[in-house]
Every structure is written in structure tokens, then in C-alpha cells.
Known about the structure:
Number of domains: 2
Structural class: mainly alpha
Radius of gyration: 21 Å
Amino acid sequence: MTIRIPTPTHRVLVGLATASLVTQSGIVITGGAVRLTGSGLGCPDWPHCTSGRFTPTPEMGLHGVIEFGNRLLTVVVGLVALTTLLAVLRTLASSRPRRDLLVPSVVLLSVVPAQAVVGGITVWTDLNPWVVMFHFLVSAFLVGIATLLVRRAQRPGGQLPQRVGHPWLERLAGLVLVATAVTVYLGTVVTGSGPHAGDPDSPRTGLDVALVTHIHADAVLVLVGLSLGLFCMARALGSPGRITRAAGVLLGLEIGQGVLGFVQYQLALPELLVSLHMVGAVLMIAAAVDVVLAARWQPTTARAGEQPRVTHHSAEAPSSDDVSGTPPTNLVM
């Protein structure tokens, strides 16, 4: 007896892509909760939680439960990534192939196990701050890839959108993305130099916290200036596509992050504000990627009751063929 797996619908693909973005973002936030609660070594070994056991013992207390819960979430992230890839592969044998989703799906699934290994290395090195930084930056990269996947999945029938057609707008959006990456990296350096190490005995970078914080703040000011310039340029060009709204969302997040960062620094980095700052960083990463896509592609829509035209295209690298997604909603919620 042959079991035929139905071809995933457009809605299913969008739902799986969104689930990938939610889980990739969620594990960044829960990883931050592990650090802020001092549970980074709640499971002192990897891949075991403790010697000979994959699960924490009652003696390990709440820290063990928190760290083990974060490890379990990695399994959820992997299952979502696997399901998404299988759904995309199923479309390739149908009349509605979604080759544009293949590369992002493969990247998400292939990097998840590598991220788990990096997480293990952070435990083996007693939460070395530079390893922890790398661990976060890889997760930030995956949030960006998941954002791309969502926008591509939102293409009706996988049709290739028209270009916005303003090269300087695209270049400025790309520069905003680079500035976002630099700002986020400097933020991890500040974190690695500050008090929240994940464990009382874990090492710090040894850098002057005040100095790296001021450098990070300068990067934020540059980023806000570039984003404001992008917003104004989009308005001057007649707000093509959805770039003005996307740039406005990013600019609002940046201003909010700047205010929150200043307040948390003045209040000696309370855990609640630091956790909110991390949530803002995840949203800002997604919004920065979305701005690049909005600057490049027009929104794609299908008329009511009309089957969208399908454009067959090869599985290209994520950086070469991006999507603006469904109009006029923004990805960052």
C-alpha cells in the first residue's frame, strides 16, 4: 500500500516558515533567560546534562531545569526545520514547485545541529564569553535566514516579484543591514564584558565595560542615522512598494532599543530590562533583513479568486533572490 503525502498548500508553507522564525527567535530569548538566571552551567556537561544522565537531577535545582529546557527547545527548532524542508522537497515533485524555498530551508536545518555543538562547547569552556558571543551571532544569522524564508514563502504560487528599481535605495538598505550586524556584534561584546555571565564563576572578556558600551552606543547612533536616511529617501521616491513602512518599523525599533539600552545601563543592568533588550535585538535583526527585501522587491499579490502565476526558478543562494512578501503588512510584530 502506497501512502501519498499531499502537496503542502501555500498556507501550510507560510505557516511552517513562520514557525521557523518563531522558534529560531524563541531559542535566542530562552538562551538569554539561561544566562540572566545564572543557569548557564545548570547542566555542567554536554551532550549529557550531568555524568551519565541526559536529564537534570533534583539536586541540580531550578538552574538545571532551565538549562535542560533550553536544550529541549533545540529539539523543537530542529523538528520544525526538518518538517519545513520536507514540505519544500515535496513541492518539487508537484506542479507547484517551490525551489525558491529550498536553500533557506537547507541552511536552517543544517546549522541547527552545528549550533547545538557550539552550545556544547560553551559548556565545556565554562561559558567562555567569546564562544557565547559566537553562539548568539549564529542564532542571529538563523533569524535572518528565517525572515527571508517567511518573505519568500509569502509569494503567491512562488512567483518572482518585480524589482523596486531604485539601486541607491537598495544600497542604502544593504548598508543599514551591515550597520545592524556591527551594532549587534558590539552589543554581544558589551554583554560578554558585563555582569551577566550565566554563572558566577564564568570568565569575562576583561574589556572595560564603560568603554565598550560607549562604542556600542556610537554604533547605534550611526545605525539610527542611516535608517532615518533610508526612511526619508523612500518617502522622497514616492514610497515604492512597502519600503517606507518597513524602514519606519526598523527605525522605531532602533529608537526603542537605544532608549532601553540607556535606561538599563543607568540602572546597573537589571535582568528584566536586559531580557527586553534581547527581545528587541531579535526583532531588530528580522526588521533589518526585511528592509533589504522591501528595498529590492515589490509586493506580490494575486487577485481575488485568481490562481497566481507560477514562475519556475532554480534554487539560488539566499542573498541573490529575495522576496518582499505579502503587502502591506510588516513582518515584525
